[in-house]
Amino acid sequence: MNPKLLQQVYDPDGFRRQGHELIDLLANHLESSLKGSGDKVINYSGPEEEMKFWGGFFKTGSGSDFFQEVLRHTTHVHHPRYIGHQVCAPAPQAALCGLVSSILNNGMAVYEMGMAPTAMERQVTDLLAHKIGFGEGARGILTSGGTLANLTALLSARKAVLEEDVWLEGHGNRLAVMVSEEAHYCIDRAARIMGLGSDGIIKVPVKADFSIDTSLLSQAYEEARSKGLHVFALVGSAPSTATGVYDDLDTLAAFCKEKGLWFHVDAAHGGAAIFSEKYRGTVRGIDRADSVVIDGHKMMLMSTITTALLFRDGSHSHTTFSQEAEYLLQHSEEEDWFNLAKRTFECTKTMMSLQWYLLWKTYGDELFDANVTTLYDLGKTLADWIKADPHLELATAPHSNIVCFRFVDPGLSSGKLDQVNREIRQELLEEGMFYIVQTRIKGVQYLRCTIMNPFTTEEHLGMLLALVREKGSRKITA
């Protein structure tokens, strides 16, 4: 055993030197990416090739090269030609908060293990609830991602709506939730984790624009009841992940009120529209929800992974997980908002409130308005260009910055067009000049763009469409 090893690991001077070097490296990376001066968004390699590289690096690579190699082998979300998945180009200030959280490592289960971030969490969730339009009795929590937040919301719904205490006694009834067939897969997953099974996930068909068909709600509800299912919640998408289309939240809220259902809004991606003067109408009715999920790491410029779960009736935010843990949780008749292990699925969690608090304090609502409005405007521009191009086909008119389209040719069958579009996307991935993804909607293959970087311009979007046209045309003449 080397008794000096721990002293070496924790040496403040070494940390200071490495930290300065790393910040310089990342600042140069940020500058290069934002300007688009780097040739590629991604230096793609296959899984086996990547495994081989990192296996070799572990054996023979130099630790001083580690961070540089990480940059070379990862996707550059700050590059304006990154138009792929729904993670933002985080603000540098948010990343610095992550560093502080990592070194302080306050687990936040109980108040004394996270005094500052716990108070900040209450501040930002209260502000978010107010921005949504909830009253003074609203409360919220931050948690690690939309999947966990949506699961927590449905657990809260079950506890609030059902007469029996499922947490303590289990349940014998057949339960169900209603969702759009285009809802994010995590809703389906949450329902299955809760033991609802396939029958307990009532998927309501969508209209031609891919929003939930509200005219079919009553029929779906009655059919579920006729099968002996107790429907306790309905989930609205704001927007759906695949298409970026918002459900009619106002109509969904009215239906839930009529039937006595919990109304949950999965606004992980598009909930930040509450900050946009131009696009706030997309979430009309969100203030009538019982619970709302909004991701900070999608449209609010924060580092992964942080999600707000807001409850219109704040009592539901601290009664879902009623449990004894005397070494950790002391019984309290009061709200006890500051002991977060009582209120979240997590016991240990990162100090994620720091980045919400600091970004909001530094730049105010205007920052989030500017980001959402800029990106949604670009989505509409891209869609307009696609509609005007005879070689391209739009899946649906977007409500947001998510745009699905494909290359088309009248002489090709549907199956052949699917293959061509898959090949176009694979070529783009391997070339690395752009990063976009793909999806299947109603069995049809589409290219899918999510414009997440406010430094993406109309010129970049035009370059992308030109590449898609060129690649598609070449393939059908080959």
Which properties best describe this structure?
7-stranded mixed beta sheet; 11 strands; 43% helix; alpha/beta; 4-stranded antiparallel beta sheet; 478 residues
Strand order of the largest sheet: 1-7-6-5-4-2-3
N-to-C SSE string, H for helix and E for strand: HHHHHHEHHEHEHEHEEHEHHEEHEEH
Rg to the nearest angstrom? 24 Å
State the separation between the terminal residues, measured CA to CA.
Answer: 65 Å
Tally of DSSP β-strands = 11
Form type: globular
Overall helicity: 40-55%
Low-confidence stretches: 323-333
Strand content: 5-15%
Q: What is the averaged pLDDT score? A: 91
By secondary-structure content and strand pairing, the structural class works out as: alpha/beta
User: What oligomerization state is this entry in?
Assistant: single chain
The main pleated sheet reads as: 7 strands, mixed
Count up the helices. 16
Description:
The protein has helices at residues 5-9, 12-35, 47-60, 66-72, 92-104, 115-132, 146-161, 166-169, 185-193, 217-226, 249-259, 296-299, 353-363, 365-387, 414-431, 458-477; strands spanning 139-143, 174-180, 201-204, 229-237, 262-266, 291-295, 307-311, 392-394, 402-407, 437-441, 444-450. The chain is α/β, with parallel strands linked by helices and 478 residues long. The strands form two sheets. A seven-stranded mixed sheet has the order 1-7-6-5-4-2-3, sandwiched between helices. Helix 7 (146-161) crosses helix 9 and helix 15 (414-431) crosses helix 16. The N and C termini lie far apart (65 Å). The model is unreliable at 323-333 (pLDDT under 50).
